Amino acid sequence: VTAAPAPKRAAVVTVGTEITTGLMVDTNTSEIALALEGAGVRVVEAVSVGDDRGALASALRRLAASCDLVVVTGGLGPTHDDVTRHGASEAFGLPLIRDPALVAGLAPSAARHTDPRAAEQVYSQADVLEGARVLPAVKGTAPGQVVRVGDCTVALLPGPPREMRPLLASLVREWGAGAAAPAVLRCAAVTESDVQVAAQDVLDGRDDVEFTVLASPGDVRVVLHDRGIGAAALAVLADAVAERLGPVCYSRDGSTLAETVLRLARERGETIATAESCTGGLAAAALTAVPGASAVFLGSAVTYSDESKTALLAVEPGLLARFGAVSEEVARAMAEGARAAFGATRAVAVTGIAGPDGGTSDKPVGTVWFALADADGSGAEMRLMPGDRELVRVRSAVVALDLLRRRLAGL
Amino acid sequence: VTAAPAPKRAAVVTVGTEITTGLMVDTNTSEIALALEGAGVRVVEAVSVGDDRGALASALRRLAASCDLVVVTGGLGPTHDDVTRHGASEAFGLPLIRDPALVAGLAPSAARHTDPRAAEQVYSQADVLEGARVLPAVKGTAPGQVVRVGDCTVALLPGPPREMRPLLASLVREWGAGAAAPAVLRCAAVTESDVQVAAQDVLDGRDDVEFTVLASPGDVRVVLHDRGIGAAALAVLADAVAERLGPVCYSRDGSTLAETVLRLARERGETIATAESCTGGLAAAALTAVPGASAVFLGSAVTYSDESKTALLAVEPGLLARFGAVSEEVARAMAEGARAAFGATRAVAVTGIAGPDGGTSDKPVGTVWFALADADGSGAEMRLMPGDRELVRVRSAVVALDLLRRRLAGL
């Protein structure tokens, strides 16, 4: 027996009015696409339709004609709005045949209902497309089915993720032709366009690898997809892109910036504290989101008033009066004060003007001072952060963690 | 001028290889569908395609022929994989014309790049479909556009939710012309089902108003949609639902919990500080996200280690040794210490076990103590928070702010 060649182009169809009305975010598509990517199958389109047999049938006909594989989830349960079996039957002209083995398996579920209509609805889950292979339910009661339609393989899977997952996993094992997992590089405090240009410099002209640049404020990811290059060569290329990106690239394994900072500190036997003004606790919240952060992160002083900078961080009132809260001098005093107050080996401080108010011609909105303190003293730098209050805050927290990361890594 | 009748059938198209490869869960579809529902428009199909101009063009042609409205998000940014403008151009045979006003607006962004290729990529965001109306960017740099294609209105919106949201809101106001704006009630620290039942009690049997319950961790919103009832009667009904919900309902105008806390404190001439252990700065970050927070919020001591609870909040080491960091005694000492250290009239403290490790049979993961301190002393209460580390942290921050809100409101 030889395995059939892996399908190359796939579509994912999710069925349910809870999706098209927005009441539920569809996470199945992402989960199925990731699993298919891992098997070397490319999702070219994902479609969601409501509990509408006609709309589903029309989508299935269209996609089965242009794809090697169509994975459908949802609408396989026992209720009136479960339209997937009938929609597929209509789309492909395949009658539904009640499977006796499935009927026997559903009998205990059906017996729980006194209303015969409810029992009949349970048994409707035993209706199988002519010629389809049954995928027995691992969780829940709804089985899946796989049927060949012309050149396309169509799989119908239940919608609840915990029921869908084991059936998907077994299918992916069958289809898996072994494309490499995508390589993910993460970068901090850099623009999307700069990352784009860097990746292009390395990857331009190749058709055996595809890349995607994903940006969120202050954080940019480059994802390299295997399109025939293979795992070993993909890893080499990912290293080349990382090299080209330089010190802005902080992880090659998908770790977040906070995870990277905590790992570096742990490896070096250091402890960390932060002093935050304009970021208001965002840097601390990012660090403490990581399980086990308490091993190296000691805490943060969120000092939003001048008085609290003095009370918690021993910033001299004279410095605040002379230079203002947003200044090199106060940033350094905050970092040194946090290091002392928390007894940490290393501290970072952020003080800036997030806006919308508080800017001056001297210190416009977006002016942010960052300082690092360690046993050897302290240093500071100013950045003018673009964007509104939210962006200034989020990006400033990223810069603070990134400065800590670079210092810990000796970059 | 009379408003055009609201479109009845809509499609949502999301563009991005990060979606079709599963690297990102698409939340825009849900958000857009909810907003369209609110305007009386029904989403009949949602489609995701990768960064593939041909696939997008073919989806757009098909959907524009069968829908009154097509909303596209994503692929409008400045990088090579931003294919939406060209995909729409190809689909509808509309040339792209570079808009001089947009070019001028993008100049500061372009000037940040030294590489001319990067600058040209920034300017590509100024390319507009012939005949399209520009929706200037409210956040970010990518503008949206709206164009009429036969009987269909096609809107292209940026993909990042914070950039998409304000443009969507203005479009939905146009399309929903005539219907009253939805009424939004927000509730804290309550289950979705309880809110559902309360809303049903008031609204059951009505066909002139429809409601949706939206839950995020610790926070539940009820949205009342005008289906013919009119603005005045909708407001009366919203008040009746708020009445039925009781003290869990903290806002009737869409204000967030943090905004409500800050408003109450300002009205009462009070100042606020927080002391956070397991929430790690999340409560402070929520408060400082609000512009003008510094008028009443003085700061937060994020004390992740025992020693820092003593150093910053003067928690007696004996209390920590005897009762442990997660205890009524330490929570109260933290609240009192924060009030003193920041010189605030009122402080809230949170100390708990967020997991995944650190739980015991006595104090399982999810055990969280909350304390409030004011001029009259302090009080504390324990809650067992369900969920994983992230949920325990987020929900605990909501509970802390909600306790502060209730105390400030005298509830």
Provide a descriptive summary of the structure in words.
2 copies of one chain form a homodimer. The first copy, chain A, starts with 8 loop residues before the first strand and ends with a helix. Chain A has 15 helices and 17 strands. In chain A, helix 10 (257-267) runs parallel beside helix 15. Mean pLDDT of chain A is 91; it is low at 1-7. The radius of gyration of chain A is 28 Å and the shape is elongated. By secondary structure, chain A is α/β, with parallel strands linked by helices. Chain A has helices at 17-20, 28-38, 53-66, 84-92, 100-111, 116-123, 161-175, 192-203, 231-245, 257-267, 282-288, 306-313, 317-323, 328-342, 389-409; strands at residues 9-15, 42-49, 69-73, 96-98, 127-129, 133-135, 144-149, 152-157, 183-188, 209-216, 219-226, 249-251, 272-276, 297-303, 346-352, 367-374, 377-384. In chain A, strand 13 (272-276), helix 11 (282-288) and strand 14 (297-303) form a beta-alpha-beta unit. In chain A, the strands form 4 sheets. Chain A has a 6-stranded mixed beta sheet, with helices on both faces. Strand 14 (297-303) of chain A pairs antiparallel with strand 14 of chain B, so a sheet runs across the interface.
